């Protein structure tokens, strides 16, 4: 007999319970789909802006002004 740890047994029971599909009596109208698309586009734009700002800060750090002869 193979000894299975308690955590693995619990994980298997949880996975088995979650794998059973039950009907969802719900209605999703077309507005819900467009709302989800708008939210995904908003998140993508926010991530792109954050990456752009990080990139410019990183480039600015490496291209810092070097003192000139006049200074």
Structure described in brief:
The chain is mainly α. It has two helices and no strands. It starts with 5 loop residues before the first helix and ends in a 9-residue tail after the last helix.
Describe the structure in your own words.
This protein is mainly alpha-helical. The chain has a domain of 32 residues. Helices cover 65% and strands 0% of the residues. The protein contains two helices and no strands. The longest helix is centred in the middle third of the chain and has 33 residues. It is elongated. The model has no long low-confidence stretch (mean pLDDT 84).
- As a whole number of angstroms, the C-alpha radius of gyration is 27 Å
Number of helices: 2
End-to-end separation in angstroms reads 81 Å
| Contiguous uncertain segments of 5+ residues | none
């Amino acid at each position: 007999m193979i000894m299975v740890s308690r955590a693995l047994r619990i994980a298997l029971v949880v996975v088995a319970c979650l794998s059973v599909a039950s009907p969802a009596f719900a209605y999703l109208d077309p507005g819900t789909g467009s709302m989800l698309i708008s939210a995904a586009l908003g998140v993508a734009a926010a991530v792109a802006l954050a990456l752009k700002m990080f990139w410019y800060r990183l480039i600015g750090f490496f291209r810092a002004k070097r003192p000139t002869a006049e200074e």
